[in-house]
Amino acid sequence: MADGEYPSVKPLSANIGEYDVIFLGYPVWFGTYARPIGGLLRAQSFDGMKIVTFCTFGSGGIEASTQDLQKKMEGSEVTQGFGIRNAFAERDAASVVNKYLIEAGYKDGSVDPLPAFGDHHVCTDEEQEIFHQACDDYQFPFGKPADVALREMAEYTEYEFNVVSAAGSSTVYVVAPKAEGAKPEFTRVVR
Ligand SMILES: Cc1cc2nc3c(=O)[nH]c(=O)nc-3n(C[C@H](O)[C@H](O)[C@H](O)COP(=O)(O)O)c2cc1C
After folding, report:
1. Which of 74, 82, 89, 150 allows an S-S link to 100, with CB 3.0 to 4.6 Å?
2. Yes or no: is domain 16-103 CATH 3.40.50.360?
3. Rounded to the nearest whole angstrom, what is the distance from the C-alpha of residue 157 to the centroid of ligand 1?
4. Cα(53)–Cα(32) distance, rounded to whole angstroms?
5. In terms of pTM, does the model score above 0.85?
6. Residues 6+ positions from 7 with CB-CB distance below 8 Å
């Protein structure tokens, strides 16, 4: 990456020109799409095509990699799809993909609309504890939660923590299931 290199990839076996929408999937590496995707884009034109991104990540979410692909693939219409933490991929990917396909209109069905987050307020001790339960066992520390906003769903509460650390500020999303004894988990960190 430091040398600006993109590993080459095997040529695609499908004729992508036959498809209306291309779902472009990758793991996130160093805050963006994995370098071999850059190799694919050198070898294969996606000009004029509709692209939907999807990815797995350790913590960092899909937003930055999609924005980078939108800049890199100027001739294509690149839309943000869905991302999931690698740690939850096996457990949750099927439902995350299904929900995305319905929301984006690729599949019939209905999903409950998400309510907006409430106002941000200074974290209470209880909210700090939820943050620590969700984040402290991750390999990298995120920093100290400063303020938080909440939204309530039927089965869980979602928290939007603004976090400060020596490296800067970030927003950490945590879900706390309402089921008895279920542990809060962070879903992504937006820097
Ligand atoms: C070289 C490398 C760099 C990575 N950098 C990031 C990163 O910056 N942010 C992040 O959230 N995850 C990062 N990860 C975690 C990967 O996104 C995660 O391991 C991957 O999505 C899992 O998919 P895979 O099993 O197909 O590799 C990195 C992983 C590797 C191997």
Report:
1. 82
2. yes
3. 27
4. 12
5. yes
6. 35, 36, 39
CA of 190 to the centre of ligand 1 (A): 15
Q: What is the pLDDT of residues 126-185, one digit of tens each?
A: 999 999 999 999 999 999 999 999 999 999 999 999 999 999 999 999 999 999 999 999
Under 8 Å between Cβ of 78 and 51 = yes
Q: Report the alpha-carbon distance of residue 38 to residue 134 in Å, rounded.
A: 33
Q: Which two tokens stand for residue 102?
A: 């319905």
d(CA 44, CA 42): 6
Q: For 34-86, what is each residue's pLDDT tens digit?
A: 999 999 999 999 999 999 999 999 999 999 999 999 999 999 999 999 999 99
- From 28, 54, 63, 88, the mutation candidate for ligand 1 (largest count of ligand atoms within 8 A of CB) is 28
Contacts of residues 165-169 at CB distance under 8 Å and 24 or more positions apart, as own/partner, are 165/141, 167/143, 169/143
Decide: 29 in ligand 1 pocket, CB within 6 A.
Answer: yes
Please report the atom of ligand 1 found closest to the CA of residue 57: 17
